[in-house]
Write a structure and sequence with these properties.
By secondary structure, the protein is mainly alpha-helical. The protein has 5 helices and 2 strands, in the order ααββααα. A two-stranded antiparallel ribbon has the order 1-2. A hairpin with a 2-residue loop joins strand 1 and strand 2.
Length: about 110
Amino acid sequence: MVVRLHLTIKKQQQDVLGFLEANKIEFEEKDIAANEENRKWMRENVPEDSRPASGNPLPPRLFNDSRYLGDYEAFFEARENNAVYAFLGLTAPPGSKEAEALAKQQA
């Protein structure tokens, strides 16, 4: 069970990083496994209503500077709905599916 959870977390992290890299979105990755200060910062900055009922919040967690954006499920849902840039607090680039969908909504 622990090994599977670790593999799931790793896969989710790679999914997020791969998306950000493929779309040339600048980001800073913070390793919480090897850095206690990063782990403490993440735990303190995940809002109470986004924490698990027991234990600590698990990665990946996304932030825009210190503003909490959500967990992997929220990222995945935004990606499925072509709304990742809005989720990340960024402007969708012209020509992207998200920008086109937004233009249609505003028309």
